[in-house]
Write a structure and sequence with these properties.
This protein is an alpha/beta fold. The chain has eight helices and seven strands. InterPro entries: HAD-like_sf, HAD-SF_hydro_IA, HAD-SF_hydro_IIIA, HAD_sf, Heptose_bisP_phosphatase, Histidinol-phos.
Length: 205
């Protein structure tokens, strides 16, 4: 990705916002909010090499089901590695592109990506303690809802840490799931309850 293209995804120095679908089709619809590292892919500790990305298979059925049910699939991820200067937004973008590509190969669509690089141990203007966009604060969820007109009351949060669950609850979500990489029947049932026969953005127009 060219630097100019990358910069346009920075809503502010420590906040990445990247739509990957026509978000207008999701207005009034719920979303499946997903943590990334440790939920979608194996968390290797500050992942910065696209070649090291390996998907966690347990979450794939849930993303496919959300796509089929007409939910927006939204990644919200803390990226303190950027804040600490361990890698930059270019490396983040390369890793995230690989995640999205691997998901697509498994029949899973991601519609929107938000990443927060603010951290109390960050460098320069990324050194912010308890930034509202950083989980467990709900800022990224609320921003995604504002951008896409999402129905948070019916939305779902999935993550592998308590900070993910806390972010969902603080945003007003009642469907929150702490997963360990294994399939979750209750999560699948909640997604199925939203199914209205839509199979993706083209069906929602």
């Amino acid at each position: 990705m060219a630097e100019a293209d990358r910069t346009r995804h920075l809503a502010e120095p420590g906040l990445w916002v990247q739509p990957l679908s026509d978000l207008d089709v999701f207005r009034g619809r719920p979303a499946l909010f997903l943590d990334r590292d440790g939920t979608i892919n194996i968390d290797t500790g500050y992942p910065s090499d696209p070649e090291e990305i390996v998907l966690l298979p347990g979450i794939l059925p849930a993303i496919r089901a959300a796509n089929a049910a007409g939910l927006a699939s939204v990644i919200i991820t803390n990226q303190s590695g950027v804040a600490r200067g361990l890698f930059g937004w270019a490396e983040f973008e390369a890793v995230n592109r690989r995640v999205v590509e691997l998901l697509s190969a498994e029949g899973c669509r991601i519609d929107l990506v938000l990443a927060c690089a603010y951290h109390e141990d960050g460098k320069g203007n990324l050194a912010v303690a308890d930034h509202p966009m950083r989980k467990p604060n709900p800022g990224m969820i609320l921003r995604a809802a504002e951008i896409a007109g999402l129905d948070l009351a019916r939305s779902i949060m999935v993550g592998d840490r308590e900070s993910d669950i806390d972010a969902g609850r603080r945003a007003g979500l009642t469907n929150v799931f702490l997963l360990d990489g294994m399939p979750c029947e209750k999560l699948m049932a909640v997604i199925a309850a939203h199914s209205g026969g839509a199979s993706g953005p083209s069906d929602l127009r």
